[in-house]
Amino acid sequence: MLKNFILLIMVLVGVAFFTLMERKVLGYIQCRKGPNKVGVLGIFQPFSDAVKLFGKEFYFLETSNMIYFYLGPVLMIPLSLLLWILLPYSDGVLDLKYGILFFFICSGMGIFSLMLVGWGSNSKFSLLGSYRGVAQMISYEVSFMFIILGLLMISNSYLLIDILIYQEILWFFLGNLILLTMWLIVCMAELNRTPFDFAEGESELVSGFNVEFMGGGFAIIFMSEYSSIMMISTFSIIMFFGSFELNFMILSLLLMVLVLWVRGSFPRFRYDKLMLLAWKFMLSGCLVVLMVNCSLECYISWNS
């Protein structure tokens, strides 16, 4: 319990500084400074924002469904934080034999919380945003699982620590560079990040699925989103670079910066193109790579 509590506190503090890093990176991309007034270099800006948001009065809409309106954000943050206990620390927080399957279950459950947020608000903008988000996450969840399945066929294990041990010989990304590229695109879509941020399309949906949330409710949704970004970045390094040491932290930080860099550099995609990309290109590409990996594994097993 103590390990889980310390891990939870560290992740939440990391989320706070990750939001500061995003604002700084986007600021320099757009030739401005970003937050630099609250503390040295704006170091206390995330905590100032947290006090402001959680100190606001929480209004409840008469037309919304109170149960679903509160249940959506309450489900979001535990599901995003629950994934962190799977990481293969030195002594382990939760050593699951089928850790990858647990990761699939928790990441897939996030669809329900997104649906509850949009449905419970009883607003056409929130509902349309949740429709988009759910359809997008379900579409890319298929490719998401097939990519990991292609790596699992090489490692022959669902345990993250076994995947790390297997990559002591050779990193997975060296023979799967195309798969890594597809993985990064799929992760952007799964996380509803630019250029696939249709669930929060300000140009046509005001603010998307969270338009009726303010104060603490908005802060919880915000924290769960950034916690998921940090988790997926960490998980990607484990699956493709097989490292959990100092260079692991550097690679994870670089991948997080890449996510922010994409946001500051690319415009929003078109929704029909998003679905075309998912079902026509990503899925077929993942299946081809999966069959190639399966054939290689069968060939190696037959010769050995």
From TrEMBL:
Signal peptide (from-to): none
Entry EC number(s): 7.1.1.2
Catalytic activity reported: a ubiquinone + NADH + 5 H(+)(in) = a ubiquinol + NAD(+) + 4 H(+)(out)
GO molecular function, one term: NADH dehydrogenase activity
Transmembrane segments: 67-87, 99-120, 140-161, 168-185, 235-261, 281-302
Annotated GO biological process: aerobic respiration
Location (main, coarse): mitochondrion
Class in the EC hierarchy, top level: translocase
Compartments it resides in: Mitochondrion inner membrane; Mitochondrion membrane
Membrane-topology descriptor: Multi-pass membrane protein
GO cellular component: mitochondrial inner membrane
Coiled coil region boundaries: none
Swiss-Prot/TrEMBL keywords: Membrane, Mitochondrion, NAD, Transmembrane, Transmembrane helix, Transport, Ubiquinone
UniProt similarity note: Belongs to the complex I subunit 1 family.
Free-text function comment from the UniProt entry: Core subunit of the mitochondrial membrane respiratory chain NADH dehydrogenase (Complex I) that is believed to belong to the minimal assembly required for catalysis. Complex I functions in the transfer of electrons from NADH to the respiratory chain. The immediate electron acceptor for the enzyme is believed to be ubiquinone.
Name of this protein: NADH-ubiquinone oxidoreductase chain 1
Organism of derivation: Songthela hangzhouensis
